[in-house]
Amino acid sequence: MKTLVRLAQLLAALSPLPALADYKWNFPEPVTPIARDTLHIHNEFMLIITALFLVVFAIMIYSMVKHRKSLGHQPAKFTGPTGRIQWFWAFVPFAILLFIDFVLMGIPAVHAIIDMEDTKNKADMVLKVTGMQWKWQYEYPEAGVKFISTLSTPREQIENKAAKGEHYLLEVDNPVVLPVGKKVRVLLTSTDVIHTWWVPQFGVKRDAIPGFLRETWVKIEKPGIYRGQCAELCGKDHGYMPVEVHAVPEPEYLAWLDKKKSEQAAAAGGADRAWSKDELLAKGKEVYEKQCAVCHQPEGQGLPPAFPALKGSKIVNGPLLSPAGKIIADSHVDRVMNGKAGTAMQAFKNTLSDVELASVITFERNALGNSKGDMIQPAQIKSLR
Amino acid sequence: MSVATTTVPGHAGEHHGEHHPAGILRWLTTTNHKDIGTMYLTFALTMFFVGGAMILAVRAELWQPGLQLMKPEFFNQLIGIHALVMIFAALMPAATGFANWQIPLMIGAPDMALPRVNNWGFWLLPPAAILLTLPFTLALFGIGDGALATGWTFYAPLSVQGGLGVDFAIFAVHILGVSSILGSINIIVTIFNMRAPGMTMMKLPLFAWGWLITAFLLIATIPVLAGAVTMLLTDRHFGTHFFDAAGGGDPILFQHLFWFFGHPEVYILLLPVWGLMPHVLATFSRKPIYGYKAQVYGFIGIGVLSVIVWAHHFFTVGMPVPALIYFMFSTMAISLPLAVLFFCWIATMWKGAMSFETPMLFATGFIVLFGIAGLTGLVLADVAADAQYHHSYFVVAHFHYALFAGGIMGVMTGVYYWLPKWTGHMYDEKLGKWHFWLTVVSFNLTFIPQFFLGLAGMPRRIPDYALQFTEFNMISTVAAFILGLSQLLFAYNIWKCVKGGPKASDKVWEGAEGLEWQLPSPPPYHSWETQPVVK
Fold first, then answer.
1. Looking at residue B196, what DSSP letter applies?
2. Where in chain A does DSSP place strands (E)?
C-alpha cells in the first residue's frame, strides 16, 4: 500500500489539477482501536491483492507480448498439466491462495471481528443512538439526557444560493459529545426505516434497525470533532443526516452533560405553566422549521402524494380534542403524537417535549394558511401521553 | 473436438423456405431460436441505453456538491431503476439472447427444445420493462410519486413506506422472474436432450456449461426473490407483518431472502460470460482450451458456493460472531474456483499464436478488469475491513468492475465474436478497436476514483456530498459521459454489420473450433435439421 500511496502522490504531483492536495487516497486518520485495526488490515490486504494482481497479469501480459501470431510464434497444443511435476506446479498457485485467504487474511480478520463485537466488556458508559427520517436522536441513559441532532447546513447552500461552508452537509445543530479514552457502548435502533450510523474515523458502521437493538463500541483516543453520515438509503433526505461527534476530555464532558441536564429540566418545567398563544406560535414556528418542514415544506404545501399538504388540510383543520379532552382517532393531535404506520410520519411523542408538541400543533393550526384559532397547552399534552 | 458430419452441415437443400409471416407478426409469433435470440439481443441493447441514460443523469447531478438538476426523491428513483434495468433488462436478456442463438448451433440441435415457451419467455420482457419505467411517466401526470425509490434492493421497511412505484417494480420482478425461469427450463431441457449424437456432457461446449449452471441457479433462487417481494406486497397492502417488528416480523429477514437470490444473481450474470471466454481465448490464441474439466468443475463449485454466502452483503446489520466468521470464510472460498478459471484462461493464451481482433481485445480487457473485481471482492469479504467499505463508493466501484467489466464487456466480447456468424458480414474492425479503447479507458477513469471516494468515506446513494469529494466526482462524471457516448459506436458498428460489410467466411476466425463454425455465415433459418455426429 505504501508503494501505491507513493505512486498516487507522484501522480498527484504530476497532474495539472490545482486542488489535488485535497485528495484522499485512503481511510481518514483512525482515532479508535477498531479503526486502527481496520486500517492496518486494509493496508495489508491492499498490498496482497496488488501483488497478486501484478504477478498474475505480468504473466498474462508477457504472454500477450511474446506469443503473438505476428511474431511467428507457433501455437502449442497442450490442454492441461501432464506428469507429476506439471500437476504439482499447477497446484502451487492454489496452495498460495488458500494460505492467503485463510491464514494471511483470515487470522487477523477473525481477531478483529472478535474485538469489534466485544461491546460489553469493560464498557464505561452507554450511548443510545436512534435513527429517524432524517435525523439522529442521542440518549445518555445513565444521565437521562436525550436530544435530537439534525443537519445545520442552511438550505440556501444546498440549493446553490449561498457559498458552501467548510463542513457542508457534515454539520449538525446538536453534536453528540463523548469523553476521550472511555469505552462507549453504542446501542442503535430506529423509529422508521433502516439507517446506518457511520463515522469513518471510528471504523464503526452499524445499522439502526426499527424494532431491534444493535450494538457496537467506540473508544476515542484523541480529542477532536469527527464527522460521518447515514450510510443506508433511508428515503428522500438520506444524504442529509450527518453525524457529528465532539470528543473531549472527561471533565469537559461531565460539564457539558450537566449543562444539558439543566437545559432539559428547564424545558420540562415549561410544561407546567400556562403558555400564551404568541409564545406557542413563536416556539411552534421554530419546531416546525426543524422537524416538519423537510417533508411538509416551509409553507406547508407538502410534497403530495408522499408528504401531504398541511395548508388547508382536513386533519389539521379538524377538531382538536374530544369533548372529554381525549385524543380523537386520526385527528391532528393523534397524527403528531402517534404518527401514521407505514409512512414517514413518525410518532413525535417519542422525540419531542410537551412544550414542543403543544407549540407545533398550535402553530400548524394557526399558520401555514390555516386559522382555526384554537390552541393546546403543554400541560394538556403531558396528560395525554 | 473432432466432428464428423453425415450430411452437408445443417443446410438441408430441400428446405429453402423460411416459413414465417412477414412484418411484426413474424416477430410476435416466431418460435425460431435465431429470431428469438435476435429479439433478446435487440431488447437488451435498447435497455442498455435506457439504463445508461438514467445513470448519466445521476452522474450529471453528482458533478458537483449541491442540488442542481433534480430533487433527492427523483435521484433515488434513478439509481434503483438503473440497476434493475441494467441487471434484468440488459445483461440477463443479452445472455439469454446468446443462449438462444448459440446453444442450438454449438450442440448441433435444430432449435430450442421448447420453442413456444421460448417465444413467451421473450414477450414477457417488454411488459415488465414498461412496468418498471411507467411510474416515471405516471408521476408526470400526477399519479403516484414516481418509480421505486429504494435502490434495486427493495429493503423493507423503506419499501413498505414507498409509493405506487414499489408495486410496479414488484410486479415487474414477478414477470421478469417467470421469463427467466421459462428461459432456464428451456436451456436445461435443450442441453440435456438435444445434443448431437456423440456429444457427451464432458464434450459440451463451455459456453453451454456456463449457461447450464446459470439456469439451475435461476430456478433455485428466483422463486425466493418472488416470495420475498410477494411478502413485501402483502406487508404493504394486506396488513401482514413479515418485515415489521411491531407485528413480530424482522426487517433483516427481507435482506436474507433478497440476497439469497441476489448473490447467486451475480454468478447468474457472469457464468454465461465465463463460459464464452475460453472459446474466444482459444480461437484467437489458435490453441485448444486449457483445463476444460477444471473449468466445468469450477463452474459447478462456484454455483454451489454462491447459494451459501449471501449474508456478506449486509455484515453491518449486526450478526453473531460465528455467523460473521462463517460467511466471511465461505465467501473467501469462492476465490479458489474463480482462481481456477483465471488460471485456465491465462494458460489457454500461454504459448499460443495470438492476434488481437476486437473480441480478443475485449476478452483480455475483461480478464484484467474482472481480476480487479475479484480481488476487491476478496477484501470486501473480510468483515473487519468491510465495516469501512460497506455502503460506500468502494462497493459501487467493486460491483461495476464485476458487472460492467465482467458482465457487459463479456457480452461485447460475444457480440463481436459471433456477429459475423449471425449476419454473414464482418463488423468494422477499426471502429471496434476504437470502441474497445474508449470503453476501457473511460471505464477505469469512471470507477477508479470511486474506489478512493469510498475509502475517504463517501456513502453510496447520496444525491449531494461534502466538499472533500468534489474532484474525484468530477473526474468520474466526465469519464462516465465518455463511456456512455462510446457505446454509440458499439450500436453503430452493429447496425453497420447487420446492413452489410465484407462477407464473413463460414469459419469466420482462423482459429475457431466447434460445430457452429461449420454452418454457413449467416446460418440458414433452420439449421442442423440433420444432427451432426461428434466423435
1. P
2. 125-132, 135-140, 145-149, 176-179, 184-190, 195-199, 204-208, 214-218, 224-230, 242-248
Span A273-324, pLDDT tens digits: 888 888 888 888 888 888 888 888 888 888 877 788 888 888 888 888 888 8
Chain B residues in contact with A216 (beta carbon < 8 A): 318
Sign of CA dihedral B277, B279, B282, B286: negative
A83 torsion bin: left (phi>0), alpha (psi -120 to 50), beta (else): left
Query: Could you tell me which CATH number the domain at B34-534 has?
Result: 1.20.210.10
Query: What is the CATH classification number for the domain harbouring A333?
Result: 1.10.760.10
For residue range B156-215, list pLDDT tens digits in order. Answer: 899 998 888 999 999 999 999 999 999 999 999 999 999 999 999 999 999 999 999 999
A256 touches B: beta carbon within 8 Å: no
**Exposed, middle or buried by CB within 10 Å (0-12, 13-18, 19+), for B25?**
exposed
How many other C-beta atoms are found inside a 10 Å radius of the C-beta of residue B353? 20
B165, B149 Cβ separation under 8 angstroms: yes
Using DSSP, state whether A189 is helix, strand or coil: strand
Specify if A74 maps to a domain. Answer: no
> Would the CB atoms of A209 and B324 count as touching at under 8 Å?
no
Name the residue in chain B with its Cα closest to that of A346: B161
Whether B385 sits inside 8 A of A69 (CB atoms) is no
Predicted pLDDT of residue A4? 53
Q: Which amino acid is at A37?
A: D
Nearest CA among A298, A273, A233 for reference residue A380: A273
Q: Which of A268, A298, A333 is the last residue of a domain?
A: A268
pTM score, two decimals?
0.89
Number of domains in chain A: 3
Three cell numbers written together for B331: 465467501
Confidence of residue A20 (pLDDT cuts 50, 70, 90): very low
- For residue A371, the model assigns a pLDDT of 85
The pLDDT > 90 percentage for chain B reads 89
- What ipTM, to 2 d.p.? 0.90
pLDDT value of residue B14: 46
- Per-residue model confidence (pLDDT) at position A9: 54
User: What's the domain range around A310?
Assistant: 273-384
State how far the Cα of B51 lies from the Cα of B160, in Å rounded to an integer: 25
How many beta carbons lie within 10 A of that of residue A252, not counting itself?
15
Q: How far is B265 from chain A (nearest CA, A)?
A: 21
Q: Looking at the structure, tell me whether residues A90 and A139 fall in a common domain.
A: no
Pairing of strands A224-230, A242-248: antiparallel
Report how far apart, in Å, the C-alpha atoms of B284 and of each of A75, A363, B295, B358, B474 are: 10, 75, 19, 10, 38
Contact status, residue A296 vs residue A310, Cβ threshold 8 Å: yes
Element (H, E) at B534: strand B533-534
